[in-house]
């Protein structure tokens, strides 16, 4: 995509992720490491080398922070073709930003409870709202490598957890994705619907992004 559109989506990422903002650069590097070392001890987030989903999330956080702060040596093959915006990186990862978003979320819930007759039980959603980025990643990486079926033998434990994956917008077709990591459609069988795929096609048709075939 062009630089203006890249900056637009960078900003949109920050506004939509809020307190759980993740750096596109660090995320891209971890994702490439995950594919290269899938379900081995070098995988940054495999459920098969951690005790439970919480220890997997904690280990992933430590590796992410090391990559983000450039305190971990990264193989050259992973350090390429990702967007960078230093100002937004520093802003999104600052405690001032994370706490600020948290205060806004809490204020929204309180106002909804006081003025919009929201039931008190909804306050239990606050932890999910505050940590939705890591929780989404935990669901995808834990479930997508433990539960479901396999269309392909990828020499790892990747699974397709759902037949119709509207819950994670296609991300739980992990077995398909590990077989064809460069495919923009995570669905493989006729019944596997990736809801993000038509969005990508639409953005391409509108010339906001350009789909390129890998040579």
TrEMBL record:
> Quick one: where is this thing mainly located?
membrane
Read off the InterPro entries from this record.
Answer: Acyl-CoA_DS (IPR015876), FA_desaturase_dom (IPR005804)
Domain Fatty acid desaturase, residue spans: 20-181
Sorted alphabetically, which Pfam families does this protein's record hold?
Answer: FA_desaturase
Keyword flag Lipid biosynthesis: yes
* Places the protein is found: Membrane
**Residue ranges the record marks as coiled coil:** none
| Keywords, ordered alphabetically | Fatty acid biosynthesis, Fatty acid metabolism, Iron, Lipid biosynthesis, Lipid metabolism, Membrane, Oxidoreductase, Transmembrane, Transmembrane helix
Entry's Gene Ontology molecular function annotations: stearoyl-CoA 9-desaturase activity
* Class of this enzyme: oxidoreductase
E.C. number, please?
1.14.19.1
Query: What is the membrane topology here?
Result: Multi-pass membrane protein
Q: Which residues cross the membrane?
A: 95-115, 121-142
PANTHER family per record: ACYL-COA DESATURASE (PTHR11351), DESATURASE 1, ISOFORM A-RELATED (PTHR11351:SF31)
Q: Which family does it belong to?
A: Belongs to the fatty acid desaturase type 2 family.
> In its UniProt entry, what is this protein called?
Stearoyl-CoA desaturase (Delta-9 desaturase)
Q: Which organism is it from?
A: Dyadobacter arcticus
